[in-house]
Amino acid sequence: MLANYTIVIVKSDKWYAGYVKELPGAHSQGKTIREVKQNLKEAIKMVLGSSRRHFFAGYDKVLEERIAVAV
């Protein structure tokens, strides 16, 4: 599954730093824009994975299915 997020990248002296607008806590840095983008992808995975595990820890899975939503 692919999801789209908005990233913001800024530059200081020798480093680039970035964050994901929709995900507080998803931020990173790197020496190149490409490196920051890759690091942000990893940060997104970490934020989504850890929050899901933390929130649902201790519960037994009852149902897993895909649902359709009209937007």
From TrEMBL:
Taxonomy, superkingdom:
Bacteria
Query: Where is coiled-coil annotated?
Result: none
User: Under what name is this protein listed?
Assistant: HicB family protein
Which organism does this record belong to?
A: Candidatus Desantisbacteria bacterium CG_4_10_14_0_8_um_filter_48_22
The taxonomy runs:
Bacteria, Candidatus Desantisiibacteriota
